[in-house]
């Protein structure tokens, strides 16, 4: 594709463009290099490296010079996303974007499952990577950079995916990673504290999420909103200001309304109302909050055109996402579960949700990520203290920070907690404590397969470490 075709601008000379990237190290011959100002570095300082690697053109802020043709744009991140959308032009017929602090991954997976059950070729993009029956790809971010995102959507579409549910993180929205995606549906789970290291204020965090509804949702699109989520009313207002229809779900929902939710050992007995009819469903999901995510997923599928009755009939058949309230081992009439709660709200929600599954005590293990929002740490500790019988504080991806000081910050919220830095030892100690009917909930890493210390990632999987610890304990007990 010629540069002028890609950029919709008359440019001389007008080179052939064979690829796009914002990373000078990934430039090959014929690539357009987007020089983006970032948090750590200024992409413009890498233009010489991009030129050396054979770049054919540059995208940059006004005032940046190069011997190559330059596309000038005051918003180069947005422009890169638009160029990527043109370079990789195929998108599934229906794309739903899901934003919110907690529940995006689960909701995206549920929506993709519902579409599949209704006979569509569906997929998801998010924290678990790009997934579908016909195409899979591991991804480094929840919302990948625009080049990776559009390349992935193009490949999924060529493979046959027609319905896509994708997570849109606040970082992704603030950095225009998903601009250029044609969103037929925009969905909202909830907004509570996270990422205040990146967003200067909570308002800025909300506004970033709001972009999905104000800027990215198509003008013929529909918003699907979990009315039980913190911040839901404000999102309804964003849709109303654009005159866009909403599908409202949850206990406080208008279109898919939860009437009752009874957690039992292996799932949730739900009663709901949709289109004037009452339905019952018993999906194998652990944790009452998953009902909110399941209903929001139903709302997304309805917003995209499915009949409410057809969607309700399939709700019983959806399964939890890996690492989200996942049951990993049974022991002494109780069990061990793994969950991805890594915010104060999620820690409280997950621990409250496990209670009906624990005839005995609830034991919680948690840490907090390094190089991330510090202010959430004591709040996560306090949420654990308020909702568990025993709390153990351990490490969770300390990254470049001192692990002991991260633990100390969590311990401010739960001073009586037991502190064991080594995550494997903490899990073994938690398992050793389990008495008749007790439940151990291991929080924070969910599906993650590694522990990041400095810039090294050591293989570590909560579920398999917990299974081994349970097997060892069983052997000891004979
Ligand atoms: C804070 C943040 O989100 N940063 C992201 C951002 O980095 P940046 O633009 O600030 O990059 P920078 O290092 O300052 O460099 C500036 C520019 O110079 C370029 N560069 C740099 C070095 C070089 O040799 N050559 C070169 O061209 C870089 O590619 C970049 O374009 O753009 C980069 C490229 O897309 C991302 O990899 C990077 O993600 C960092 C690593 C990250 O950890 N992000 C996390 C927090 C994140 O995005 N998380 C959300 C989900 C969170 C959640 O919901 O829980 C996600 O969607 O995954
Ligand atoms: N509707 C909800 N309300 C409150 N907490 C929730 C909700 N859904 C999930 N959680 C909690 O948040 C954790 C993360 O869930 P999930 O992975 O679905 O969220 P996410 O928004 O994708 O997170 P991330 O931003 O890291 O990608 C879960 O393991 C659970 O503890
Ligand atoms: N997407 C989230 C994941 C957090 C998971 C937790 N294990 C951590 O490392 O903090 C983030 O990057 O903030
Ligand atoms: Mg996610």
TrEMBL record:
Residues 17-88 form the Mur ligase N-terminal catalytic domain. It holds the Pfam family Mur_ligase_C. Coiled coil: none annotated. The modification N6-carboxylysine is found at residue 209. It is found in: Cytoplasm. Its cofactor is Mg(2+). Transmembrane segments: none annotated. The keyword Nucleotide-binding applies. Its main location: cytoplasm. InterPro entries: Mur-like_cat_sf, Mur_ligase_C, Mur_ligase_C_dom_sf, Mur_ligase_cen, Mur_ligase_N, MurE/MurF_N, UDP-N-AcMur-Glu-dNH2Pim_ligase. GO terms for molecular function: UDP-N-acetylmuramoylalanyl-D-glutamate-2,6-diaminopimelate ligase activity. A motif (Meso-diaminopimelate recognition motif) lies at residues 396-399. Keywords: ATP-binding, Cell cycle, Cell division, Cell shape, Cell wall biogenesis/degradation, Cytoplasm, Ligase, Magnesium, Nucleotide-binding, Peptidoglycan synthesis. HAMAP family: MurE. Catalyzes the addition of meso-diaminopimelic acid to the nucleotide precursor UDP-N-acetylmuramoyl-L-alanyl-D-glutamate (UMAG) in the biosynthesis of bacterial cell-wall peptidoglycan. This is UDP-N-acetylmuramoyl-L-alanyl-D-glutamate--2,6-diaminopimelate ligase. It comes from Hyphococcus aureus. The lineage of its organism: Bacteria, Pseudomonadati, Pseudomonadota, Alphaproteobacteria, Parvularculales.
